[in-house]
Amino acid sequence: LLLLLLPALPAAAPGDFDPYRVLGVGRGSSQADIKKAYKRLAREWHPDKNKDPGAEDRFIQISKAYEILSNEEKRTNFDRYGDAGESQGFSQHQHRQFHRFHDGFYFDESFFHFPFNSERRDTSDERYLLHFSHYINEIVPDSFKKPYLIKITSDWCFSCIHIEPVWKEVAQELEALGAGIGVVHAGYERRLAHHLGAHSTPTLLGLINGKITFFHNAVIRENLRQFVENLLPGNLVEKITDKNYIRFLSDWRKDNKPHVLLFDHMPVVPLLYKLTAFAYRDYLSFGYVYVGLRGTEELSSQYNINVYSPTMMIFKEHIDRPADVVQAREMKKQLIDDFLSQNKFLMVARLTNQRLFQELCPVKKSHRQRKHCVVLLTREGEKFAEAYEAFLTFAVANTKDTLKFVYIYNERQPEFADALLMDEEKYRGRSAVVILERRNNAGKIAYRALEEAWQGSKEDNFILLDLLDQLRTDPGLLSSETVVADLNDELAPMFLIRWLYSTLDYISDCWDSLFHSNWREMMPLLSLLFSALFILFGTVIVQAFSDSSDTRDSPPSEKEETAAKTEKNDVSFSKESNSRIPKKGFVEVTELTDINYTSNLVRLRPGHMNVVLILSNSTKTPLLQKFALEVYTFTGSSSLHFSFLSLDKHREWLEYLLEFAQDAAPIPNQYDKHFLERDYTGYVLALNGHKKYFCLFKPHRSGDEGGTLASCEDYDASLHAEARGKPSCSPGSRSIKNKLHKLSFWMERLLEGSLQRFYIPSWPALD
């Protein structure tokens, strides 16, 4: 009986309100289904539309249910605890009552031994837990010094339990080697989990240089170690043998870094050494010598290496002897860090960027923490080598914690050199030594230069040594002050190279995301890609089926504002036509025949019109010349096409069309004796193939200087006169060219949309 009652107790704790039941959806419904159900019920039960007395209460319940289910956090709380989080105190009170109830019967949840219960879980992950602000402000910047292996987990995750032993072992091992470890609880840090792109648990990923890489192999120790090792750049450590060690150690001048050699009997570079090289890559260059390999005997003999114990040597300006050595049977991270942190810089480092200047010559914080820099301002070339060697010898003999010896090349840092030397003649073409102290981060320094140029003589050494001794007791010795600009970054790659590296990284990220990342993250990119391909191929297909004359039209210029048109569906046509600047030095007029009739008229694109001139064989040349002159200024519009029709071949087609261009006036039938005598040469038709209408231009009549624009309405009266056998447009009564007089005014009205339109049911065949 107790076992039957126990499941019912927590079920009775929450209230009777069930948002799933109110909206009529299941617990596994998507947000789209929930939203659809809410809209349907809201419309049905809205108090303004539903007059039922309980409509208002029902509408409030629907809104509350949607508020819970549309919020993922509230929905999760309701699914887990039967409460959306608004009455947690009441729920917790009932939960405590329940615990007291079953504890009184000596019943405890540990009886079931649920390993996924968060209260009983191993607390080893707690010190690795990450929060969003901690990740953004600390972990991401730190990933430029060491890679991070991050696990995304959650409660009630059986797979998380399965990988827990392997994860714990690998996390401890990698942390000891210098890698970073992080754990994100997706239930409590949902924002961070979403930011990392983790949509399921468990998820393992690596973070290096701010870049996220997902782990996709089986969760075993070897795969996880290899995954972290693959995150590191491949050129961190160079393999060194007898053939290349001199070249490697001699690069200190070009790299402006000390060079580190690790001698070990392992055939592959240890992961500890690679992680160390990544952490100190801005300060040191690393090489690895496999002492068991043939071709390293000379190297091992020269530096007296013990082949049975790992040995680390650091070389600075002198490659014949190491500046420092450490040897141990088992190299530990702490030992290596202490050794390298004391040898991060050359004895006399060259100031190549502002960061190095700030580290070597820090701003004074107190009187006891004063640090001075002795700067040699010299130039490149053999002429200045002797002065540099003398300065290096002096620096090695007088190294102190409060003194740093550096040098710069005047031609590479001209602003810095000019600020200290003031362009004095005695230093021109010669080396100089300046003692300086940085006063603030804005570039203010106090300094004093040696009176004479530095030549490296014994006298110069005595003068400099005397100044340094005085400086220990008299800080006011640095009497001059100035402000120097930030140093140029001499070792920064060129812009083109940086752009190329950035492009390669972006391509690599896209490649990795395409084949390995969560497809949910790739959907925006894939949608954009397929949309671009669809538009591209759609354009190609449309152009392939369009007429060749249309493809030769250049795109229209910028559209200008136009007056309101009589019909809204023609606004686009009139706007595009308003920019009529000719783009060619000629007018392209094609003959309208049965071959191109379909493409040039019947299937003409929406918004386009074909302006057709009617002519005969005898009037072809003069009419085409006049037609070209009249319409030339309108050829800039890509929506206008120009053609001519032979009256001798297609009179019947024209007569059929003109029957629709009259209102009440009768049209003589084909048995009229003047049927074949009517002269239509000089008529112009503007044909809109898509909307099946046309406008008509009638030739100008002699003596009509009042200037009829030959609009479509004038056609009826002229047609009556022609029907009586008195053609007003005969070639004998006026010149042929004069027929197209004022055609340009008619074109203006055509583009304005003010001409009368004659609609036809369908375009007749052109036989």
UniProtKB/TrEMBL annotation:
<dbReference type="Pfam" id="PF00085">
    <property type="entry name" value="Thioredoxin"/>
</dbReference>
<keyword id="KW-0072">Autophagy</keyword>
<keyword id="KW-0812">Transmembrane</keyword>
<feature type="domain" description="J">
    <location>
        <begin position="18"/>
        <end position="82"/>
    </location>
</feature>
<dbReference type="InterPro" id="IPR018253">
    <property type="entry name" value="DnaJ_domain_CS"/>
</dbReference>
<comment type="function">
    <text>Plays an important role in regulating the size of autophagosomes during the formation process.</text>
</comment>
<dbReference type="GO" id="GO:0005789">
    <property type="term" value="C:endoplasmic reticulum membrane"/>
</dbReference>
<feature type="domain" description="Thioredoxin">
    <location>
        <begin position="114"/>
        <end position="233"/>
    </location>
</feature>
<dbReference type="InterPro" id="IPR052448">
    <property type="entry name" value="DnaJ_C16_autophagy_reg"/>
</dbReference>
<keyword id="KW-0256">Endoplasmic reticulum</keyword>
<dbReference type="InterPro" id="IPR043361">
    <property type="entry name" value="DNAJC16_TRX"/>
</dbReference>
<dbReference type="InterPro" id="IPR036249">
    <property type="entry name" value="Thioredoxin-like_sf"/>
</dbReference>
<dbReference type="Pfam" id="PF00226">
    <property type="entry name" value="DnaJ"/>
</dbReference>
<dbReference type="InterPro" id="IPR001623">
    <property type="entry name" value="DnaJ_domain"/>
</dbReference>
<feature type="signal peptide">
    <location>
        <begin position="1"/>
        <end position="15"/>
    </location>
</feature>
<keyword id="KW-0472">Membrane</keyword>
<feature type="compositionally biased region" description="Basic and acidic residues">
    <location>
        <begin position="549"/>
        <end position="570"/>
    </location>
</feature>
<keyword id="KW-0325">Glycoprotein</keyword>
<keyword id="KW-0732">Signal</keyword>
<dbReference type="InterPro" id="IPR013766">
    <property type="entry name" value="Thioredoxin_domain"/>
</dbReference>
<feature type="region of interest" description="Disordered">
    <location>
        <begin position="547"/>
        <end position="577"/>
    </location>
</feature>
<protein>
    <recommendedName>
        <fullName>DnaJ homolog subfamily C member 16</fullName>
    </recommendedName>
</protein>
<dbReference type="GO" id="GO:0006914">
    <property type="term" value="P:autophagy"/>
</dbReference>
<keyword id="KW-1133">Transmembrane helix</keyword>
<dbReference type="InterPro" id="IPR036869">
    <property type="entry name" value="J_dom_sf"/>
</dbReference>
